[in-house]
Amino acid sequence: MKDPENGASAPKSGASDAGRRAGKPSRRGKRRRSGSPHAAGIAVSAGQAGSVPAAGRPNEAGDAKASRKRKRRRSRPEHSPEKQALQPRGPQSPQPPQAEAPAGEASGKARRGRRKNRSKRSLQGRPMPPAAPGASVGHRAEPRSDARIDQPRGAPPPQRHAPERASPPVARPREEDLYAALDLGTNNCRLLVAQPGRPGQFRVVDAFSRIVRLGEGLAASGRLSDEAMDRAVEALRICAAKIRNRDIRRMRLIATEACRAAENGESFLKRVTEETGLELEIINRETEARLAVSGCSSLVGREARSVVLFDIGGGSSEIAVLDINGQRSSRLAHHITHWTSLPVGVVTLSERHGGQDVTPEVFAAMVSEVEGMLARFDCPPLPSRGDGFYLIGTSGTVTTLAGVHLNLPRYDRRQVDGLWLSDPDVTAMQAKLLSWGFAERAANACIGPDRADLVLAGCAILEAIRRRWPSQRMRVADRGLREGLLTDMMADDGVWSRNRARRTQKNR
Predict the structure, then answer these.
(1) Could you give the residue ranges of the DSSP H alpha helices within 412-454?
(2) Strand 473-476 relative to strand 420-422: parallel, antiparallel, unpaired?
(3) 166, 217, 291, 343: which has the highest count of C-beta atoms within 10 A?
(4) Left if phi > 0, otherwise alpha if psi is -120 to 50, otherwise beta: which for 174?
């Protein structure tokens, strides 16, 4: 078709370049609106002139076809009102009001618009455009998959059966679910802050551990020295600050053998309360043995029939014998049949025999002393063969042996906790440590200078236990009284039962 004014070919869009820049309607669209033969999109030739409708009369077939196209376009997701509301409104030149374009031209413009705006579609996995004014935050528009094709223009979208909900926020630890456990022992001061997780488990939120050697010189004088008490109070101040910074639901703070045996143990705890605000309780040896078992309950497999669990501490060593032949209880401490607490630990034994220069003769003397204490422990014999019986050790001694066995360049709890060691492995590691001098032990990353004079005393206690209860394997536990305290508190409060009930209701 030739332009009637200058004979140039009209652009494909039906409007001149100047007209398009100015936003003017095209002449082709103008003729269509005026009822010209081209309004219905029919090609006119000399032999078809008589079949062209008269000017001003609508083409019924063309209108019906255009109506169907408009309905189909309205049913498409990209033409939904929700999607159009999310499209960005950039700065545009003002457009003069104009009448609705016929179907052919509107369809072409819609297709070109879709090609141009395809990169801006937020529902195709691309970045969301700026929200339209008044749009609610946190919700996303969704394509109208159930829109009716005979929906009149401008009518509100149909209601969905299930309105879309915003994605739930990421779950964060609730402060009212936090528990704290503190263990002030003869050698260490340890703190754990944790939150209940799956039944029988918890997630550690904060932790602290420091060697304070509270029982240093206790065996000789019977009292806690001023220097040892100062070190312990300084560590407890840090623990108190950590506890104050969180909203703890429940906590339990205990002291063990050093405060039990010292003449000034009670007065020391009063000083701790005055200077730090923490109130510690001195627990007895039976409670200490039960807490050690509770802390290691997850390491006792279903195949176990009997287990000897020991905790080699700084001033005492707790041993518990478990019989799991019958129905297993939810609390492993209920399976304790016999227990004992030896009044000897790594600190007291190394002070009596010397911990720096340990010869094979000195090591044998330490083992003999502990064997004499175990001989007074009345316990029936246990099966020493098969997979149903094994040892579980929870102390710095067994974790140190595991780290040396693995040749770790740096101690890693994730590789040590739960590790199985065979009886020959334990024998080889003890012989290796006994062959090292004090400097070599101190230089090892899994021992360090703080434990270099204590590790062989712990090995002597372990050797006496292995001779009393021979076993083909031993499991290493990097856990102890703190984990037992947390487990007991959470079980008493029934937090795992409530969490299980919530998950059951959610899954229904």
Answers:
(1) 413-416, 423-435, 438-443, 448-451
(2) antiparallel
(3) 291
(4) beta
> Is the separation of the CB atoms in 477 and 418 below 8 Å?
yes
d(CA 284, CA 54): 110
Number of H helices, E strands in the chain: 20, 11
Instruction: Find tokens 């434990």 and name the residue.
Output: 451
Cβ-in-10-Å burial (0-12, 13-18, 19+) of 505 comes to exposed
Q: What are the start-end ranges of the H helices in 42-200?
A: 60-75, 81-86, 103-116
Indicate the pLDDT class of residue 497, thresholds 50, 70 and 90. Answer: confident
Instruction: Give the best-scoring range by mean pLDDT among 6-20, 109-123, 483-497.
Output: 483-497
Best-predicted range by mean pLDDT among 62-66, 153-157, 292-296, 370-374? Answer: 370-374
Rounded Cα gap, residues 164 and 148, in angstroms:
19
CA distance 278 to 281: 10
Q: DSSP H helical segments within 245-358, as ranges?
A: 257-261, 265-276, 285-295, 346-353
Q: What does the buried/exposed string (b/e) look like for 46-56 if buried means 16 or more CB atoms within 10 Å of the residue's CB?
A: eeeeeebbeee
User: What are the tokens at 408?
Assistant: 């770790």
Q: Are strands 306-312 and 389-393 parallel, antiparallel or unpaired?
A: parallel
Angle between helix axes 455-468 and 346-353 (nearest 10 degrees) is: 110
- Confidence class of residue 199 from pLDDT cuts 50, 70 and 90? confident
